């Protein structure tokens, strides 16, 4: 059982990391997009390994399908023949980015292996999840617990999120509306002033 | 070796570093937005891992992960709408071409 869990974890983690590198390093933007879809789906696999079925299905529905479709639409509406050559920038900031990434990773690894095991117990009370709790969650699913939390403890953030989504919908419609004589797109106005 | 919390934290760190690399390095605006999604996914893995190993009764980390997903969806929609509005005025997706935006 433990061996099967380990094998699944390593396969899924390898897929996540390779596809994330693919997003950054592929030359064509459509290939990056396909790689991002693979990355999202394998992250849903990681969530399933962590006993989080509701979050995994939300990941598939929101990231794997919703955001993906929006991005594919954006790619299809903006890509032209001449822009397929855009790849990573060979500027001083590339070196800065590589150093930042490696440095942050080294810092986290140092933190995890250096003082994680001694000090984390006083902060987080890490114990491996007990087998009867895991069995209860695997039998009933996590949706009931999450729903109860959403409507009692986190009711105010939940309502604020709904207002935020409404504002995002209205904002997207206003921003992408075509220009007419009566309604001027604010970004167009600013850019025209800049040019003139 | 038994899979523990540290494995998931390391995986999240790798994913976060790749996201930062792509955020700074890439020249295509859509790729920058993809890198932001990778960053948010790394944070989600951290939240769910800590919820699994410390807080399996209340699952607060799952609730936070779902909030992050909702905000990421709104962010992706608004970001891509801004990109389309910009593209209508200046037909390019090169980051270097938008230095007009820095005021």
**Strand coverage percent of chain A:** under 5%
Compressed to H and E, one letter per element, the order of chain B equals: HHH
Largest interface: A-B, 90 and 81 residues
How far the N terminus sits from the C terminus of chain A, by CA atoms, comes to 69 Å
Q: List the uncertain runs of chain A.
A: none
- Outline the biggest β-sheet of chain B: none
The level of helicity of chain B is over 70%
Rounded mean pLDDT of chain A is 82
Class based on secondary structure composition and strand pairing of chain A: mainly alpha
Q: Average pLDDT of chain B, to the nearest integer?
A: 87
Describe the structure.
- The complex is a heterodimer of chains A (196) and B (103).
- Chain A has 196 residues and is an all-alpha fold.
- Chain A is extended, with a radius of gyration of 23 Å.
- Chain B has 103 residues and is mainly alpha-helical.
- In chain B, helix 2 packs antiparallel against helix 3.
Helix and strand layout, with pairings?
The complex is a heterodimer of chains A (196) and B (103).
Chain A: H1 2-25, H2 29-49, H3 53-78, H4 92-124, H5 131-140, H6 143-151, H7 155-176, H8 186-195
Chain B: H1 5-25, H2 29-54, H3 60-89
Please give a quick description of this structure:
Chain A has 196 residues and is mainly alpha-helical. Helix content of chain A is 79%, strand content 0%.
Key structural traits:
A: mainly alpha, 8 helices, B: mainly alpha, 3 helices, 75% helix, 0% strand
